[in-house]
Design goal:
It is a single chain. The chain has helices at residues 2-14, 20-49, 58-62, 86-103, 163-185, 187-193, 227-242, 358-372, 400-431, 439-459, 467-485, 488-493, 498-542, and strands at 70-80, 114-122, 131-138, 144-147, 152-157, 205-214, 222-225, 247-255, 266-268, 271-275, 299-306, 314-317, 326-329, 333-337, 349-352, 387-390. A hairpin with a 4-residue loop joins strand 4 (144-147) and strand 5 (152-157). Helix content is 46%, strand content 18%. Helix 4 (86-103) crosses helix 5 and helix 9 (400-431) packs parallel to helix 11. The strands form four sheets. It has a six-stranded mixed sheet with strand order 2-1-3-5-4-16. It is α/β, with parallel strands linked by helices. The radius of gyration is 38 Å and the shape is flat.
Length: 543
């Protein structure tokens, strides 16, 4: 009975007419309620939707500038029957550095500064990268330098009085030539000199694909090859020498019925020929399937092209050089043309033996050297003042001098790549305040910075110079920096600007905001009217 009376009294009150004061009070309560939920909800929404941003070491990253010179030391040991004094070694070192510095071209505005430095010691160098022995021989008829595939050279002079001057010339030429070559490989220098043969960027692994491509086996011969034995005999030594620094993953394939190349060779009395302007268009990539078994690593394609019998023998004619049968494709690989014996007839089966492919494998090795950046004239070229003989490393395909020069190039380039990537990452994070920066990204950035510091420290540890450690640190710095920059959590935010966020939340907040603003407007207008009426009434009483 009591409950029924209370309900009756409640509905009875609701049925009573509302007064102006009650309506005004209800409006104020509604407005205060909405304000309360907004004031409570907005901070809660802000804290729950705020992105996590680990603090990156920005100040440590931006301190790297192109003007900061990176020293690259090269250590030479003078081995003579009559040992030189340490004072003579110091004199040679000072003279070499002065000559190298005086011959150094000016750095461009955005070019990273590097400074090759020669350190001269007395004795025999240890068998480690970056240390070289110059064996001094007196009494020869001419002044010459005989460079061996190992990290040594024989410097011959007619008289002992000429020894120091010849050593200064030889060492300064070695250091200056390599420094210029590294600067020429830099992106700014390549653009400045118009270099069309760009060396591949360093990668911890390259996917090397060897392809036997038969243009027309229907009207020609069925060609196969003993590629496994050829790789083992010719290419594997080079692969083994480069393995501590980069891995060459070698695979092979045979493509029959490949079809003709996009360009038509010119006919001659004794076959066909290609001109130099036709070579860039020779590779028919859309029709010739050069798929790699490793899609994540940079590809190097080397094609042994067997022309149709009607086009054989096919040659390459380039003005200024003799006839050739191979050419390099920049940033892609190389092609070697295999002409079959004159006695080959349509329908014959031909198997290319390792001996038959020796010339072509030599072309491929030379092209690999060019693409990865191995200098062909390392460490020194002949000049008017100095006769130089460089013995090629026929057994391995790369000498100790060439391998060390390549390592130094990769140290410089990987350091530049790491710094540029880290600074781009900092600029990107600063420009997008809503970008998520997780702890693992900060960890990669910190490890990349630590590797950069370790690279610089390793290059300054004379006489305990450790190029292998410096190279590993620089490669790790570049890899970690790129891994942080291209992290999926970072890349996804590039396609989620603030406009998307506004478009998502506006339908939720706008319907609640408009009635609130309208109610507030009515309340303030009502108050102004009440105050105006009160002031009028007050003034009338005063009168």
């Amino acid at each position: 009975m009591a409950i029924a009376d209370r309900l009756r009294a409640l509905f009875g009150r609701q049925s009573q007419p509302k007064t102006v004061i009650s309506v005004h009070r209800e409006r104020q309560v509604a407005v205060c309620s909405i304000l309360f939920f907004l004031l409570l909800g907005l901070p809660l929404w802000w804290s729950t939707t705020r992105v996590y941003r680990a603090e990156l070491p920005t100040s440590d990253i931006v301190r790297f500038t192109p003007e900061q010179t990176l020293p690259v030391p090269v250590v030479f040991y003078i081995d003579a029957k009559t040992p030189l004094s340490q004072a003579d070694a110091t004199f040679i070192e000072t003279s070499v550095q002065a000559q190298v510095d005086s011959q150094r071209p000016q750095f461009t505005a955005s070019e990273w500064h590097i400074r090759y430095q020669a350190a001269v010691r007395v004795g025999v160098a240890p068998d480690t990268p970056g240390h070289y022995t110059l064996r001094l021989r007196m009494g020869s008829d001419i002044t010459s330098v005989d460079v061996t595939p190992a990290r040594s050279a024989i410097v011959s002079v007619p008289h002992a009085a000429q020894a120091k001057d010849v050593l200064v010339k030889a060492i300064s030429a070695i250091v200056a030539d390599e420094e210029r070559s590294v600067r020429d490989l830099a992106p700014q220098a390549s653009k400045a000199i118009g270099n069309t043969h760009a060396v591949l960027k360093y990668a911890p692994e390259y996917a090397v694909t060897l392809t036997l491509l038969n243009e027309n086996p229907v009207d020609g011969a069925a060609v196969d090859w003993d590629i496994k034995q050829a790789v083992r005999m010719y290419l594997q030594p080079l692969v083994d020498e480069l393995r501590p620094f980069t891995r060459l993953s070698v695979s092979s394939q045979v493509l029959h019925h490949a079809g003709p190349p996009p360009v038509t060779a010119h006919k001659a009395d004794n076959g066909t020929y290609l001109t130099s302007d036709m070579l860039p268009h020779f590779v028919n990539s859309p029709s010739w399937n050069f798929a790699s078994v490793d899609p994540t690593s940079p590809m190097l394609n080397f094609v042994l092209f067997v022309p149709a019998l009607a086009s054989q023998p096919m040659r390459i004619l380039d003005p200024g050089i003799e006839r050739s049968s191979a050419f390099l494709v920049s940033q892609w690989g190389g092609v070697s043309i295999a002409n079959l014996p004159d006695t080959t007839r349509p329908g014959d089966k031909v198997v290319l033996s390792p001996e038959d492919m020796q010339k072509h494998m030599g072309y491929f090795i030379s092209q690999i050297r060019s693409l990865v950046g191995i200098r062909s004239n390392a460490p020194l070229a002949s000049s008017a003042q100095l006769q130089v003989r460089v013995r090629p490393a026929t057994a391995t395909g790369v000498s100790g001098w060439e391998l060390d020069a390549l390592m130094r190039r990769w140290i410089v380039r990987n350091r530049q790549t790491a710094i540029a990537t880290l600074q781009s990452l900092v600029r990107l994070v600063d420009s997008l305040q809503n970008m998520v920066v997780m702890d693992d990204i900060k960890e990669k950035v910190d490890r990349s910075l630590a590797a950069l510091y370790e690279t610089e420290n390793a290059l300054r540890r004379l006489p305990d110079l450790n190029y292998v450690h410096a190279f590993a640190s620089a490669a790790s710095a570049a890899s970690l920096a790129e891994s942080a920059f291209f992290d999926p959590s970072m890349v996804s935010m590039l396609y989620f600007p603030d406009q998307h966020k506004y478009a998502i939340y506006m339908p939720f907040f706008l319907p609640a905001t408009l009635p609130l603003l309208a109610a507030l407007k009515k309340i303030f207008a009502k108050r102004r009217r009440v105050r105006a009426a009160a002031s009028v009434k007050e003034s009338s009483k005063t009168d």
